[in-house]
Design a protein that fits this description.
Layout: E1 7-12, E2 19-21, E3 36-41, E4 56-63, E5 66-75, H1 76-84, H2 89-93, E6 97-98, H3 101-107, E7 113-119, E8 126-135, E9 140-148, H4 155-160, E10 162-171, E11 178-188, H5 193-201, E12 204-208, H6 218-222, H7 240-243, E13 247-252, H8 265-269, E14 275-277, E15 296-301, E16 305-307, E17 312-316, E18 322-325, E19 328-330, E20 333-342, E21 347-351, E22 357-361
Parallel strand pairs: 1-21
Antiparallel strand pairs: 1-16, 2-9, 3-4, 4-7, 5-6, 5-8, 8-9, 10-11, 10-22, 11-12, 12-13, 13-14, 14-17, 15-16, 15-20, 17-18, 18-22, 19-20, 20-21
Length: 366
Amino acid sequence: MKILGSLLKISFLFSIVALWSCAEDKEYDGEGMSSLEVTAYLSTARSDEGYYSYNTLFYDVRTRHATRVLTLVLPSAEVEARIEAGETYEQIGQEGTALDEQQLGVCNELDGLTGLVSSGKDPETSYTVIVYAEYADGTVESMARAVVTRVRPPEIFIAIQGMWSASLAVKNAAGDQSETITFPVEIAQGVDDVTEASYLSGHRVVCLGFGGITYYSPADLRSNKDGLFGNYWNGGLGDASSDYGPKWFLELVQEDGGGGGDPSVENLAGGTEQIIVPAPDNVPVLFRYGTDLASNYLAGCDGETAVFSEPFQVEISADRNQIVIHAFQVEGKTYYPSVVIKESDSALVVLQGLSDLILTRQDVLE
């Protein structure tokens, strides 16, 4: 095991979519513009309702003076086959469901009708939204938009999403004894469409929160929340999707030779270690928005050295109500989960862990 390049002497600082469209999008500004506008997209905004980017698509419809509007969502392969057979979007669209009177009224307003939902979809599949509109002068119009649902996460990752309470023994501020801290952690597929797409493609879910350190989302950084960040992230200098946090990851790693598909709760509990907290060298920073924009990582630390190239092994209980992030050993020394700033030839400890990190589900599953 090569570790020389990742063992750094440390000092201490105790502180605490895939979207494609089959017509051109236009801005609605009144006369001269198309009277029908349709947008189809994926979103993380309603994941707490079971609407995930792998099983749900959203769409917005905006019309001007329409008297009747019908919407329909079909697999794109079916739509393409029917178009090739000679049907038109207008003909197919008439099979849709009509908006009710209230929806139609909103649809005819400036902002249009937003957030329409089509759920129960298959992952990694293209769907086409077709909208058919009729007008008082007898004219009709149709428009189609397509969007591809994302990959479905492993079942174990779906099972553990939600709110957790974490506990970790740490060296206290004086540095002379141990104390146990608790803090909330949320496990999610991502915090916005960009991060979700990235994490799912890497077989990861994100854990939001660590050590009671103030959390700032990508949107918080870009909007200069609390007046702390200036124009660094909204001026194109920083990458908010990488620098936000604190965040860390759980990753599914397949065994060499292909493995046997998604891990079940049972075989994970039985000792098959296929879920890890990936090594700091292989993931974005824990956060990077503090003093001097230092890069903070969740790394293994033994009090003298920090290791950035080793992952933490993860144990998930059979009832899915507890997750343990285990310390690892290198050459007989034990390295606990810690917050460490990585510098060119050294490391600075922000929070030194002294135990395994234990997560307990807040809403216990029966």
